Amino acid sequence: MSEESVPGFGARSGWSREQAARIERTPETVAPIIYPPETDPAPHVHIWDTWLLREPDGSFATIDGWRVILSLTAPSGMLPGKRHDAAEIRAFASHDGRDWHDVGPVFDGGALGSRQWAGSALYDGDELVVFYTAAGDADEHDLSYGQQIVAATGGRVEAGPERVTIEGPWSHEVILEPDGERYETSAQSRGMIYTFRDPWFFEDEGERYLLFEANTPVPDGSDACGGDPIQQEFNGSIGLARSPTGDPTDWLLEDPIVDAVCTNQELERPHVIVREGSYYLFISSHRHTFAPGLDGFDALYGFVGDSLRGPYRPLNGSGLVATNPENAPYQAYSWLVYPHDEELLATSFFNYYDLGPLGIDDVGRLPEDEQKRRFGGTLAPTLRIGVDGDRTEVLGALDHGHLPLPGEALPELVLGERSKEGYGAF
Ligand code: FRU
Fold this sequence. Notes:
Elements: H1 17-20, E1 45-54, E2 67-75, E3 88-94, E4 101-105, E5 115-124, E6 127-135, E7 147-159, E8 164-167, E9 171-176, E10 197-204, E11 207-215, H2 229-232, E12 236-243, E13 252-259, E14 268-275, E15 278-285, E16 299-305, E17 312-314, E18 320-323, E19 332-340, E20 343-352, H3 368-373, E21 375-379, E22 381-388, E23 391-400
Parallel strand pairs: 1-5
Antiparallel strand pairs: 1-2, 2-3, 3-4, 5-6, 6-7, 7-8, 7-9, 10-11, 11-12, 12-13, 14-15, 15-16, 16-17, 16-18, 19-20, 20-21, 20-22, 22-23
The structure holds beta-D-fructofuranose.
């Protein structure tokens, strides 16, 4: 990743086409195949994007022994492809990081937007703060796709012996909107996808930041991507905002930290982990959001740098960290990485499986019961990832939805289990 690769776009780092052209499945980057879980912990809802309730220092919070996760959910009777139109944030709690009980919808009705998309959650003192994306407008009749970043403050977590409850009163406030210069507005968008979403809280050297997924404005007639208007539509970025006061409702936009103009349109759910002085920055992206001429996968991608603002280099040369096996290319998506002792753990959701030769665009043409049958809609097995400088390696997987705390022993790795083609071969 070179600073020269993105002249004029404000970010210190670009994800260049040359780097992304190196993306390929290798034994180090292919995840094991996923089978449906024996029991679905929440059969009444589809579950997808999930994040941990964390302390300000980034660690997984525990409240009277409970750990809490928040997920985007929709009723399981809905067609999986329609779930984004009815997304609601729900919490789940567990004593052991394995069995999760449904705490219910996090908000009591006052959430902004016509539906709520991904975010992050902070246990600040004993206040629960949820950062989320308000998609569309609260009372709209026809769905719209504008996105605003919101902070909901005032939440309380009540942790009883048997279960956890979450209560308000909540106060919801729009905290970030695109400025049209560093971050594209929906009116400026020329691409198939528009993004200004997925706020992720991060504290670094006493300062508070939000990372988010965005697009870089590329005006008509720009000479970006050799002047190719089609490639210019692929203008994803990783945005940054800083709180000048530390107040979770007070934020100022800064320049993006990674720009992927000409490479990829959606750098989803950015988040960062600091390890031995290096900043590991992760995103999820889809096969179909790479610009023409690039062959990416639905996968977890990552970058490493010496400071939050970069410059960043793509991990493993291309940015690819973990993808689905070739014979199940859509089995998981929307990874969230957190540190566990020497390793990294990545949770995600069980997406479409058993598609045979079908592509993702064919799913909507299947009979409705088949669309539902082939959608996991629950937490995927947690990936174990080894990391060494700029290199990473998928080491194996834990059970569906198993989210250990630091220090909790993980099963011993079975060496030599992986074949040359990666786990996907079996
Ligand atoms: C990733 C994602 C997020 C978004 C959510 C909407 O799976 O596209 O970026 O917040 O899904 O459902």
